[in-house]
Design a protein that fits this description.
heterodimer; A: 735 residues; alpha/beta; Rossmann fold; Bifunctional carbon monoxide dehydrogenase/acetyl-coa synthase(codh/acs), Chain M, domain 3; Bifunctional carbon monoxide dehydrogenase/acetyl-coa synthase(codh/acs), Chain M, domain 5; five-stranded parallel β-sheet; disordered C terminus; B: alpha/beta; Substrate Binding Domain Of Dnak, Chain:A, Domain 2; six-stranded parallel β-sheet; 26 helices; 10% strand
Chain lengths: 735, 649
């Protein structure tokens, strides 16, 4: 009987609203009405309230009308046991009231100094949403599961989570039953958690579910481009684009039901493992069934996928361990290690080369030398991985691109870790993987299957040789090194001037319809993922796709990087919104941004330079804006002189804002980014004849405001201070 | 010999009162019907003409006697003209009702009414925006004035198209235009019928069909729709609400006031007045346990929908309610009021009061009500009732102990929120239910009572058959009251009577399988529900593509002729029990039951057996499902639930 469900939902929603009213009153008494409310790392205030009501709650006082709305409009009487009034709409209102009440309580928690417990994430930042949310809405990540409460046993907990991970479904555990949580169970079973392994516990309370839902709703605002307050479209977007669902373990208490109603309001169905849960099967609010019972744990995840209509490409690769992107972040620590290849004590080389069609037999996987059955635990041995690809559309230029995928592919099997590339690769198998039967030759199965799967258009035949035999290994290493040198020479020599064709990338037009990336050899895509060669390959692989060649045409201004045909292309493909476009300028008709940028460049007028801030950096920058606020300025396919979204490696390019003076304009970088790129930054600085330049770049440990930044730059005599005024760099002759 | 109470009504309360009336020697409609038999067959076939004083003329249906009237009019012409006039009378009744409500809104906006205010600002603003009225910074009363004036202009419109025609799906509007039946002006279209049917004007039966269809459309997409819209604006948009129905709502210990008729203006004032402390005190001082207000016919449904005021009964129960001797006042206005009720004013202390300036009844006190003194008039009426209570002989009061719970208050607007709440107002679950094969389709089962069919039986049996086959039913007027009394508007009815798929939908939403959408002018709500289903998508581009059907299993009034015609002309297959008086003309009969579908996508059928009629509707719905390539039905239809009702006479 659905009525029982709705009675519980409505009771639960009353409890949450009462709790919110109480917590709010206490907070007002303690902090005063003007006290500021905010979650860390978001530009969306209290995101759920903002999205659905259009109200930007920034202080305790701002909560009052929201609570009043809950109390007066959204809380209804629970349906009677006889001649009841219709309850579906009332239940969904209860769900909305629950969302608002939970969000207010949690925001007040942060006001009171809340820190998530060890291993829990609490509020999920805009950064995480931008990184993973885009994958959720464009379909790369098939969906996410919010899991309430602990599984009946730890084995079931692990099984269910593994089944989800196998399908690359993101998992958010929260809520407890009698103090027990799923996270604890996974901890006990030594399951690694975190964004990398797709398991992100938000907190042990039912309330902590709001962090999942107010994370998801931001995708509608960010990628859907919907206006806060346009609740019908936002909820429809979340139903149609975000493939999420809930799983509840055990019989469902009222507060879970209310949270479930909130999830159903957003279009996410709930699957319960409990015999006593009544089903709500008719559809409409959700795409398919709304509340479904599945008591067979083996069927739990398949049922979820069916009910939500998640499209999963299950990876069927003939290996004895699970294989999915969700295992990418898994580490194999020394203690868990069966064997390693490469690293300090051995060598591992991977080399992919183009061969003629008749040279290989498709699917042939050859092991030269012995496998690891007799190798002692913890040993390090040499391994050569030689991949041969033949295809009518295959070109030498694609070798490096395909080879680079080996890293990704070999991180997908659980219990296998891959680091590095080329002759500096480093591979570990865990004891568990070994016990399950994972051997060297399985590397071949993986590479064969994945290259065919993802690059089937260019790879007609794939064969793999795996080499542990000493002489063969030495010979491979030598051949590989020669090839790398030749490849590097070819790539290093590649400048924008040398090519006639640039490539466009309009992959992101699904959510930023006016944005066009122009990718040239010396300027990678702003997401960091697409180089010119990648785009070239992508065009070969799918000629109708998002990467189209742009013939540069007549040069209008070589210094700014303006060409006639590029202008034309950008204009046509930006829905006729961007009329002029300069590849090398920050201040004059710069490139637009979709929202995926790794970093943002932003001018710091008082320092006559620019700062570059990466997505991961959560703190303040010297211009008084955090990354999330800056992102709001930059994204959405609009030209914003002075602001630019970029891939981090663009900083190292000779064409890095070269019109405004380039590399020497960098006055500030977050510490972590600076450290990560230090080697390359130093190399570039040396190339420019300023070997000590990198130390003249400030970071957050030196300055987070304009005045102290300028003070530091003056002290170290930063070159930007002596450069032409950034604001005064004249535009092109056409201006 | 008189027919038995079971043959007369399937409703236990009515059966009890029919027997009581017989015992007391009260004459009822059924008695008069039986005395009338045999009824005139020329009239039934529609082949007698009294339109000029050369006649009356009548055509011999067997082809032996006169085949043409004195002027030369054939049976086809005579049938078509008679039907057109009946349609015009029906349309006039609804539209004049709509005019009065619109006028009441205008008076209210001008501050000239007593006790009324604009209760539904949201709907008023929505209408204003639909009408293209700038509302920013405007006083609500100014907006109301402008909206009401534009609507009133539609009554007198002389050219162009009625404003609300634009609410219909584009393809339907196109069909209307192609056939030349798009209504121009509400009054003008009715006048056109009267003119066209005058001796020596329009005599082409098919041309006359167009004229009558235009007039019917001016009711459905004009007068009735305005009546609904502005009743909602003035008196509030209904929301699902719990109440009771049947004669058992009369309480012998209270002052019983029954409002009977159609227009909500007076009844709304009475609802307000009955709650005023001075009136309540007067009732108490008279020794009564308060004032028990209840309704009869469509007035009942209006105050049921908005205030949950209980329903005493439907059309054929008006005499039965009075026969209880427990009614202190029956206040009537217009439509469906039997002049026979005057008898009860003589038998009991009951006050019978007619209030409309349009309608007086011999033997009934005429106290004309006007909106300017609404509350004062209402109080006056209630005081009459209190006086009557004092005079009432308690020994004479016999009230059947039969009452049923029901949920009413469904409208297009409230269906949206019922399905999706504040943040997900949508029709999606309904459309999905149909597309998935849980709900086979939707039926509107509406209309009156008719002594020729066992009272309530036609409605209840048809509706049970439909819901058993997973057809969701929307109802208005006396049809709705019949099913409410039979318990079909309690949510529990889903489990009791509905097929499994429909049951699942009812269970998910918390609704009954039969939804009460209001009075007979509120059939416009059913049209607009169809429009929303088309808009929501997945079920075709026009109303005629939807898996829906209409029925009037106990119809009797000319209003029903207008309704059935505009529903069919909007693309909906519609079954009427009693045939229209068109059987004397092959051309007219074949057009209404066939040719009309080619022109407009909908047509009529006539079938007295409610179960057979239900299956005509189900077959039609199945045909539409197949044309839309919808999924197979998810479950088999449910086994029939044993019926206690006797078959019709």
């Amino acid at each position: 009987m659905s009525r029982k469900v709705f009675q519980a939902i409505i009771r639960g929603s009353h409890e949450f609203v009462e709790q919110a009213e109480k917590v709010w009153q206490e907070a007002v008494d303690k902090h005063g009405e003007g006290a500021e409310l905010k979650f860390p790392g978001t530009a969306f205030a209290l995101p759920m309230i903002l999205a659905l009501t259009g109200r930007k709650v920034q202080t305790l006082a701002d909560c009052e009308p929201v609570l009043k709305h809950c109390r007066e409009d959204l809380l209804h009487a629970a349906p009677a046991n006889q001649s009841w009034l219709p309850y579906l709409g009332h239940g969904l209102d209860g769900g909305a009231a629950t969302l608002f009440a939970q969000e207010i309580v949690c925001a007040i928690d942060y006001l009171n100094g809340y820190k998530p417990q060890e291993g829990y994430h609490g509020f999920l930042t805009d950064t995480s949403m931008r990184e993973l949310g885009i994958q959720l809405v464009d379909g790369r990540m098939p969906g996410f599961a919010a899991i309430l409460g602990p599984a009946p046993t730890e084995e079931i907990a692990v099984d269910v989570v593994r089944e989800l991970q196998k399908r690359s479904i993101l998992i958010f555990p929260f809520a407890n039953r009698d103090g027990k949580t799923l996270k604890e169970q996974l901890d006990n079973q030594k399951v690694q958690m975190g964004w990398d392994t797709y398991i992100v516990p938000t907190g042990p309370r039912t309330l902590d579910g709001i962090y999942v839902l107010n994370w998801a709703v931001r995708s509608a605002l960010t990628f859907g481009g919907l206006k806060p307050g346009d609740f019908q479209k936002i909820l429809q977007y979340s139903r149609d684009r975000v493939f999420a669902f809930g799983i509840t373990f055990g019989s469902i208490p009222d507060d879970w039901y209310a949270t479930g109603a909130a999830s159903i309001l957003m279009g996410y169905p709930v699957v319960s493992d409990s015999e006593d849960t009544p089903e709500v099967r008719p559809t409409g609010v959700t795409t398919y069934e709304a509340l479904v019972r599945e008591t067979d744990y083996e069927q739990l995840v398949p049922t979820c996928i069916e009910v939500r209509g998640v499209k999963v490409k299950v990876e069927e690769i003939d290996i004895p361990v699970a294989f999915a992107a969700a295992f990418e972040g898994e580490r194999v620590r020394r203690g868990d290690m069966q064997v390693e290849f490469g690293g300090k004590n051995a060598h591992c080389v991977e080399f992919l080369r183009m061969v003629d069609m008749e040279e290989i037999t498709d699917g042939e996987i050859e092991l030269v030398g012995s496998d690891i059955d007799d190798v002692e635990v913890g040993a390090a041995i040499d391994l050569g991985i030689e991949v041969m690809v033949a295809g009518r559309e295959m070109q030498e230029d694609f070798e490096a691109i395909l080879e680079r995928q080996i890293h990704r592919y070999l991180n997908h099997p659980t219990g296998v870790m891959h680091i590095g590339q080329r002759h500096l690769a480093w591979l570990r198998f865990s004891k568990t993987a070994f016990e399950k039967g994972f051997r060297i030759k399985h590397i071949g199965n993986i590479l064969y299957a994945k290259i065919h799967d993802e690059y089937g258009k260019i790879a007609d035949k794939v064969a793999v040789r795996l080499i542990t035999e000493k002489d063969e290994f030495a010979s491979l290493l030598q051949r590989a090194r020669e090839a790398y040198r030749a490849r590097d020479a070819r790539l290093a020599g590649l400048t924008d001037e040398e090519v006639d064709l640039f490539y466009s990338c309009t992959l992101c037009q699904t959510f930023a319809p006016n944005h066009v990336c122009v990718v040239s050899p010396e300027r990678p895509g702003l997401c960091g993922a697409y180089s010119w060669l990648d785009c070239k390959a992508a065009f070969q692989i799918s000629p109708e796709g998002c990467n189209q060649p742009i013939s540069k045409g007549r040069t209008i201004d070589a210094a700014m990087g303006e060409w006639e045909n590029v202008n034309k292309f950008v204009y046509e493909n930006s829905n006729r919104t961007v009329e002029r476009y300069c590849q090398y300028s920050l201040m004059n008709h710069p490139m637009t941004s979709c929202g995926c940028f790794e970093c943002i460049i932003c001018i710091v007028p008082e320092a006559n330079g620019v700062l570059v801030v990466n997505r991961e950096y959560m703190g303040m920058t010297p211009i008084g804006m955090e990354f999330s606020t800056l992102a709001g300025q930059v994204g959405g396919g609009v030209q914003t002189p002075g602001f630019l979204g970029i891939g981090r490696r663009y900083m190292l390019s000779k064409k890095f804002i070269s019109y405004e003076g380039g590399f020497h304009r960098i006055v500030w970088l977050p510490r972590e980014l600076k450290d990560e790129l230090r080697e390359d930054l130093v190399a570039r600085a040396e190339e420019l004849g300023t070997p000590d330049f990198v130390d003249k770049i400030a970071d957050e440990t030196i300055a987070t405001d304009g005045a102290s930044l300028v003070e530091f730059l003056t002290k170290v005599d930063h070159p930007a201070l002596k450069m032409e005024s950034l604001l005064g760099v004249p535009g092109s002759r056409r201006d | 010999m008189a027919s038995s109470s079971e043959q007369r009504s399937s409703d236990p309360a009515s059966q009890e009162m029919i027997e009581h009336a017989a015992a007391c020697g009260f004459e009822l409609a059924w008695d008069r019907y039986e005395a009338m038999l045999p009824q005139c067959d020329f009239g039934k076939l529609g082949i007698c003409c009294r339109n000029c004083s050369m006649g009356p003329c009548r055509i011999d249906p067997f082809g032996e006697g006169a085949q043409r009237g004195i002027c030369g009019a054939t049976a086809d012409t005579i049938v078509a003209r008679n039907l057109a006039r009946a349609t015009a009378a029906g349309a006039a009744a609804h539209s004049d009702h709509g005019r009065d409500i619109t006028h009441a809104l205008l008076l209210t906006a001008r501050g000239k009414t007593e006790g009324y205010k604009i209760n539904n600002e949201k709907k008023l603003r929505k209408l204003a925006s639909e009408f293209g009225i700038e509302t920013a910074d405007k006083d609500l009363k100014v907006i109301a004035t402008e909206v009401a004036e534009l609507a009133l202009a539609d009554f007198g419109r002389q050219e162009g198209e009625l404003r609300l025609v634009s609410r219909a799906p584009e393809p339907l509007q196109k069909k209307w235009r192609q056939l030349g039946v798009t209504p121009t002006g509400i009054d003008a279209d009715i006048v056109r019928v009267m003119h066209a049917t005058h001796i020596g004007v329009d005599t082409d039966p098919l041309h006359l069909m167009k004229t009558l269809i235009r007039t019917a459309l001016s009711d459905g997409w004009g007068g009735s729709m305005y009546a609904t819209d502005f009743s909602d604006v003035l008196f509030g948009g209904p929301e699902p609400i719990r109440s009771h129905a049947n004669l058992g709502v009369l309480r012998p210990e209270a002052v019983n006031v029954v409002v009977h008729g159609h227009e909500p203006t007076l009844s709304e004032a009475i609802v307000a007045a009955a709650q005023m402390p001075d009136i309540r005190k007067e009732a108490q001082d008279a020794g009564a346990d308060g004032i028990q207000l209840s309704g009869m016919c469509c007035t009942a449904t209006e105050i049921l929908m908005r205030h949950g005021i209980p329903v005493a009964g439907n059309f054929l129960q008006q005499e039965l309610a009075l026969a209880t001797g427990a009614v202190d006042a029956m206040v009537v206005d217009v439509q469906c009021i039997m002049p026979a009720i005057a008898d009860y004013g003589k038998r009991f202390s009951t006050r019978l009061i007619s209030t409309s300036k349009k309608a007086a009844f011999p033997g009934i006190k005429h106290m004309v009500f006007d909106e300017e003194h609404a509350l004062t008039s209402a109080k006056e009426l209630l005081r009459e009732a209190i006086e009557a209570f004092k005079e009432r002989d308690p020994k004479e009061a016999v009230v059947p102990d039969v009452v049923e719970e029901l949920i009413a208050g469904y409208t297009v607007e409230s269906i949206f929120t019922t399905l999706g709440g504040t943040y997900r107002p949508l029709f999606r679950p309904l459309n999905h239910g149909i597309m998935d094969g849980r709900i086979r389709g939707v039926a509107g089962v509406v209309g009156c009572n008719n002594v020729k069919i066992t009272h309530d039986w036609g409605h209840v049996e048809m509706v049970k058959e439909l819901i058993r086959n997973d057809v969701l039913v929307l109802q208005t007027g006396c049809a709705a009251t019949a099913c409410a009394k039979a318990g079909l508007m309690r949510p529990e009815a889903a489990e009791q009577y509905a097929g499994k798929g429909l049951q699942e939908i009812c269970d998910a939403v918390g609704i009954s399988p039969v939804l009460h959408v209001g009075s007979c002018v509120d059939n416009s709500r059913i049209l607009l529900a169809c429009v929303e289903m088309v808009k929501e998508g997945g079920l075709g581009d026009d109303i005629s593509e939807l898996p829906v059907a209409g029925a009037a299993p106990e119809w009797m009034s000319e209003k029903a002729i207008s309704i059935a015609t505009y529903v069919a002309a909007s693309g909906i297959f519609t079954v009427c029990a009693e045939p229209f008086p068109v059987m004397g003309s092959k051309i007219v009969r074949e057009y209404l039951t066939g040719g009309m579908e080619d022109d407009l996508g909908g047509m009529l059928a006539f079938e007295r057996d409610p179960i057979a009629a239900a299956h005509l509707m189900i077959d039609h719905i199945n045909k539409k499902r197949a044309a839309l390539h919808l999924s197979e039905m998810m479950y088999e239809a449910r086994e029939p639930v044993e019926s206690e009702a006797v078959p019709a006479k």
